[in-house]
């Protein structure tokens, strides 16, 4: 085996081990949470913020931080019982602790001077992504003569150990500007003085990080790469996947489609197993032909002769349709990462497009890294290429089936 071939084989194997070492319990989004903040100008010198906070996490975090055991007991009991009225009552009965937790970690400043918060009305309850969210309206009194405003969020930090990677999605109409911003531990604040490219980078980075942090989406892409014998096949498959998830991503953003995560997540896991299993089935039927790189006419893996448009045989077209259908479901998973299931997302539309661009950038980078390595291996050692791609697909298929079972039965 040549030095270049050994390097290609080691590179592919290392990539697979790194991906699969995450373990079968990995989830698409992990134990994360998203805070929603709607920021608008109020009366002269005042700012209004409407916060959406994941209820059970809010209760546990506030009770722990403020040493308020009654809030934990009553709030948790209301959550376990699914009693919306009792959930709101628990927060309102311990409003001082709940508001103190928020205002120590969420702030508004005007030209660097702190604005003073005051609660407006009672806590309210709603739902996002199938889980209860608490609503809190705050009025911020800012110093006179202030200009640019900054919103800073450190809610539900990793240090509390309840969740990791909390993001705060801010929508704003402030200082004559409107739009959205994504805040996290690395980028905890947004200023109305920020330029358009800084706002672009925020959601681009968020999309890239989401795909990199979603091991199931990466394994789905890896299964596509392993099962693609030619560059045109992976390009067409990736394009089909992109178009499909972009459709449902935007439909969800416009509030036209809403599918619970209890349905989306198991289907995403199943899609991983199906796409990987498809290639294993092709290997069984086609044998050594599964590694063929000849672009000319000839029998396909399904035994049919000739190729149609784009150089795809019947099996190739069927695979493309399957990828497109599963891409529709993955789009709902991407939208779920931002809780995009309501009409308010019209104000987020541009940011969602940028979020999608971030996803695609990482997707293309993975293809550019892995596919050439597999191509070199297949050309120089077809049998070894068959074994490596088969091993990748078998591992990905097994992982997908494990995740499917876990998500379907809540294991």
Distinctive features:
411 residues, alpha+beta, seven-stranded mixed sheet, four-stranded antiparallel sheet, 16% strand, disordered N terminus
In words, what does this structure look like?
It is built from twelve helices and eleven strands. It is an alpha+beta fold. Strands 1, 2, 5, 6, 7, 9 and 10 form a seven-stranded mixed β-sheet that branches. It has a four-stranded antiparallel β-sheet with strand order 4-3-8-11, with no helix packed on it. The N terminus is likely disordered.
Name the shape in a single word. Answer: elongated
- Distance, first to last CA: 44 Å
Helix content: 40-55%
Number of helices: 12
Structural class: alpha+beta
Average predicted local confidence, pLDDT: 79
Spans of at least 5 consecutive residues with low confidence: 1-30, 291-308, 341-345
Largest sheet report: 7 strands, mixed
Order of helices and strands: HEEHHHHEEEEEEEEEHHHHHHH
* Quaternary state of the chains: single chain
Q: Got a strand count?
A: 11
User: How much beta, percentage-wise?
Assistant: 15-25%
Over the alpha carbons, how many angstroms does the gyration radius reach? 25 Å
